Fold each of these.
Amino acid sequence: MNSTVTSDTLARQACVRHRALFLHPLVEEDQPALPPAQQRVKAALTAKACALCDRCPIRQQCLYDAVIRYNVSGVVAGTTPAVRNGIRRRLGWRVEPDNFDALLGITNGQHVNHDDVIRARHTNPQESLQQLADRLGCSLSTVKRHLRQEREASPSRPQLHVLPPALEQVEQALLDVTTRSISSGLSQAA
């Protein structure tokens, strides 16, 4: 975050004022197999969060940080993780997920096997990520990290930048990704 951000600016941020919305499990967690009713609720909550982000005084900085610096979950700067991943692919940029457990010195005395996390997610798609973490005896961030690694695993990765892209490049990639997804949605509807 920019060091010139004042406490007044922070207080006006939608994600601060509407924490319950931005931290709602349907917005925060990636849940691939939801019943139709929950999918509609998730879509409505995500749209509301995105609309609130559009009016945020530091939206551009949040977008840049969420695309270039941190691999976060949930809605950030009016984007979803899928959109941010599309921007990164377009820019040839990769963000290594933070190992929050290691940063905090948490080991729980055991190592969680990556395949166990993936298997548990596929076997129990209706469970929240916190429930999976409890089941596996690890932290929520550990489950998120393993799922993120699985999503990002790809046999052929594009050439990655050495220097981070500029904010303008991130904004253009966002426009390209969202325009392309709108266009493909319209062509599928026709």
Amino acid sequence: MAELPPHLRGAPGAPVPAVDPEDLKAIWRLHREIASQRPGESVGIDNTVMVGRCKPGADVHALAYRTSMLQVLQRVARDSLAPWTKNTELDDAVFRVAADIPMEWIGTEERNRLPFDVEELLRRLRGEAT
């Protein structure tokens, strides 16, 4: 199997560190900017670019991982996220909840679920003020 990208290299099953919601939103926007510039392409983002978008000391690996999980969630649960989506943009509540929802690093094994409790994320979103 090919080597995992850096943001997927945490010890499988270990908790992913919580991150600052504003940093998570900044990395989300960075991904969206790049995707709009290179539609249909898969593009890696250098850590130094991510560091430049975040507050000092940000864990860019955890930010990249949580961003990728949000991207997957948006694809597989678009209807569930609809109340917190405006013109394809996620509300700040999504970033607040996704920044510290318990999440685990995945390994190379095949999975049939996301590495966090989607129902818990949605429950927390329902309780958030946007």
